[in-house]
Amino acid sequence: MNPIRCFILDDEPLALSLLTEYTKKIPQLKLIGTSTSAFDALKTLEEEAIDLLFIDIQMPELTGLQIMDILGDRTKYIVTSAYSEYALKGYEYQVLDYLLKPISFERFYKSIQKAKDYFQSIEPSLVPPVLAPNTKEETDFLFVKTDGKLVKLFLKDLCFVEGLKDYLCLHLKTEKLIILDTFLELEKKLPQEAFMRVHRSYVVRLDQIDTIERNRLFIGEAIIPIGKTYEQQFQEWIRKYQ
């Protein structure tokens, strides 16, 4: 199972610190970030691929319920709150669990088991059972929507993906395609062994990288920055081939 990429949003610094410590004790969790500000968190969550959001309900800028309305099904939620009366309302948003403050590690751990069970249940197998192994190459494609039509995209032709606010630009070997999608949704469809997020605005196909220089990489004539958030993961991948 892939690590669960999570984010913590809570306007109480002590609660935020406690949940941060809890996540560090569970290897299956990969903490992408934390915030006490709803608006700062939304900015990050619009750009990052997050599987699970720990979210408080009572916050001064936006409530947790309002944030879940904004994000919709882009991520899954575990609600954290000191107010039990919000529990039923929270479940209307199909949250995975509701943690009542103060939160013990034992209760937190049980909640993560629920999350693990959920993500394991939706994680696709690498090779569909109806296909023979030697047909995998024929399935390495996606259909993407552009200009009101579905276009067949062979992943071997995709060099990198660039985020353009509300759109994504797919840089292929011979052309570019603009699609209305998010990094979060597209990353779920791309094979992790072939593609990697290297910046909040870029996903690259690893075998298309020509040169690496300091904090940037080159694919053809394109120069792609390597963000600090993704630098360690990228360096670990490089070391495999040195």
Description:
With 242 residues, the chain is α/β, with parallel strands linked by helices. The chain has two domains: 4-122, Response regulator (Rossmann fold, 3-Layer(aba) Sandwich), CATH 3.40.50; 137-239, LytTr DNA-binding domain (OB fold (Dihydrolipoamide Acetyltransferase, E2P), Beta Barrel). Helix content is 30%, strand content 32%. The chain has seven helices and 15 strands. The protein has helices spanning 13-24, 38-47, 64-71, 87-91, 105-122, 183-189, 228-239, and strands spanning 4-9, 29-35, 52-56, 76-81, 97-100, 141-146, 149-154, 158-164, 167-172, 176-179, 195-199, 202-205, 211-213, 216-219, 222-225. The strands form four sheets. Strands 2-1-3-4-5 form a five-stranded parallel β-sheet, sandwiched between helices. A five-stranded antiparallel β-sheet has the order 10-9-8-12-11. The protein starts with a strand and ends with a helix. 25% of the residues are buried. The model is unreliable at 125-138 (pLDDT under 50).
Features:
7 helices, globular, 242 residues, alpha/beta, five-stranded antiparallel sheet, Rossmann fold, 15 strands, OB fold (Dihydrolipoamide Acetyltransferase, E2P)
The total tally of domains equals 2
- How is the main sheet built? 5 strands, parallel
- Shape annotation: globular
> The CATH topology of the largest domain is what?
Rossmann fold
Runs in which pLDDT lies below 50 for 5 or more consecutive residues are 125-138
The order of strands across the largest sheet is 2-1-3-4-5
At CATH level 2, the architecture of the largest domain is 3-Layer(aba) Sandwich
Q: What percentage of residues falls in helices of 4 or more residues?
A: 25-40%
At the first level of CATH, what is the class of the largest domain?
Alpha Beta
| Oligomer type | single chain
Query: What's the helix-strand series?
Result: EHEHEHEHEHEEEEEHEEEEEH
Count of individual beta strands: 15
Amount of beta strand:
25-35%
Structural class: alpha/beta
Q: What's the CATH H-level superfamily name of the largest domain?
A: Response regulator
Q: Count the helices. How many? A: 7
Distance between the termini: 27 Å
Mean pLDDT across every amino acid position = 84
The radius of gyration computed from the alpha-carbon positions, rounded to a whole number of angstroms, is 19 Å
